[in-house]
Design goal:
Layout: H1 3-16, H2 21-33, H3 35-51, H4 57-67
Helix pairs in contact: 1-2, 2-3
């Protein structure tokens, strides 16, 4: 496995909630090393968020559209939050 494949695996583990503490720290150090690394992570996170919805949209829409009519839908409890630099 080359370095890019390894980083991609760390990103996937982190976004899926499967990364351990050491893996999360390693990914954070990688992102701190270069602003392009952070940009790459954010691009991958955007792709992840679009392709891995927190719920089955088709099954949830009728129920949610009535329940949250006129309000903002609350954030998913499974949403990944990255506190980069904190």
């Amino acid at each position: 496995m080359d370095q890019q494949e390894y980083i991609d695996e760390l990103i996937i583990k982190c976004l899926s909630g499967e990364a351990g503490v050491d893996e999360s720290k390693e990914l954070s150090r990688w992102m701190d090393a270069d602003k392009e690394h952070l940009a790459y992570f954010l691009k991958m996170k955007n792709i992840w968020d679009i392709s891995h919805p927190a719920f089955d949209i088709a099954a949830e829409m009728p129920r949610r559209s009535l329940r949250y009519k006129g309000t903002k839908c609350p954030a998913s409890s499974g949403e990944f939050r990255w506190n980069h630099g904190q």
